[in-house]
């Protein structure tokens, strides 16, 4: 029990230096551990979210990371997982301060999504679908793609462009191409709706997608929706974002 108490005291002090030192451990040694752990976490988050980090001075950024380090129970030591934990912390537990950008949560999520797609391992091979097969194939979105929406143009944010308030919703399709580069496409609301339907119902045909789109957009006739959806899906098929449906990849274990 003594060891467990010492271990808990060690962890508590590492996360929050205002907590008492563990019994029997000198300050000089604890200072080394404090600096090592905190510096690693700060480096991981800064590397994952370089744009967000660039919007803070060094002191303010360290204070933000310290709040995360002290309060959030990370369950994984991996670089990518720590970045995701930080994004979750901002979305679930952190109260924006007057000096924080109003878009910090959205920007952090967008930067994490780019990192996730750049580093995620694909499970199984995906079968490409040719543009001319769109009308006759069962389809799905590539594993290496994400459909996102934010009320800020997060791809434009920098030290020189920082919107002061939310605006029109921006729809993004992020994907990793055959050269393993992460790209994004800004899409309109109708295209985002089409892709979301496909995301939620992998294995759909063009006709089935159009049928669902007709419910959402009753002012368009079937021929108009068919033509528009076909053109969009053909374009994304060329990019490798829309692929042939793989039943084994979408089955429950």
Automatic annotation (TrEMBL):
<dbReference type="InterPro" id="IPR054098">
    <property type="entry name" value="NGO1945-like_C"/>
</dbReference>
<feature type="domain" description="NGO1945-like C-terminal">
    <location>
        <begin position="142"/>
        <end position="236"/>
    </location>
</feature>
<keyword id="KW-0238">DNA-binding</keyword>
<dbReference type="InterPro" id="IPR044922">
    <property type="entry name" value="DUF2063_N_sf"/>
</dbReference>
<protein>
    <submittedName>
        <fullName>DNA-binding domain-containing protein</fullName>
    </submittedName>
</protein>
<dbReference type="GO" id="GO:0003677">
    <property type="term" value="F:DNA binding"/>
</dbReference>
<feature type="domain" description="Putative DNA-binding">
    <location>
        <begin position="5"/>
        <end position="90"/>
    </location>
</feature>
<dbReference type="Pfam" id="PF22106">
    <property type="entry name" value="NGO1945_C"/>
</dbReference>
<dbReference type="InterPro" id="IPR018640">
    <property type="entry name" value="DUF2063"/>
</dbReference>
<dbReference type="Pfam" id="PF09836">
    <property type="entry name" value="DUF2063"/>
</dbReference>
